[in-house]
Amino acid sequence: MAPKSKSQQQQQQQKNKKKSSCCSLTGFLTVIGILVGILSPIVYMIEQNLEKFYIFDIEELHDLTQRGLSAHPNDTAAIVNYIVSELHEKHPNHVNPKHDDPAEWFFNNAGGAMGGMYVVHASITEYLIIFGSAVGTEGHTGRHTADDYFHILAGEQWAYTPGDYKPEIFQAGDVHHLRRGTVKQYKMPEGCFALEYARGWIPPMLFFGFADGLTSTLDLPTLWRMSFITGREMIGNLLLAKI
What we know:
This protein is an alpha+beta fold. It is built from five helices and ten strands, in the order αααββββββββββαα.
């Protein structure tokens, strides 16, 4: 048999590469299909029973906020201490009590808004944070896979929904409930801080939290700090069987 020409060898190599690529793509899609098949019923089961995984109660958080405001009017730092201390007493294994440690605070850029954040609790189905800014900010709320309850501790938050002609105005003691899957424009016209509680599917929300840092600010140290603290709290809670 005559040896293959150089042209024939190149054609054969190209065919082999295409076949290899096709096999790789098929293998990748197969793995994805298997993962979806395994995870879908698990996610569905958890979705139907999300209430069983929550450790924080909406009304209790609102009552705690009201008591903190009454005990320490016009002193945001004392209000935060009051809230975090009581939460840590009730949930010692699931609450980060180090709110007075500057290393536990970091900037968060999301939806065009910027503020300081301290993670009180983070797990697969819940997060509880202190979020705010001493100089004000404005942005997009994001469209999330969890209900979000914004308990105002100081200042005001304004919110706008397309089609409305007046803003919603939330003051200290009020709660702004952003329902799962909905979106608004929001603004903190001056200094404003809040206890923010989200319940639902938390991991998908992290993409919104990282987007500005990866595409706009490129503040890698802040992204690392946010990732480290959030991951630490989520993994810590998972190890305690808190989903």
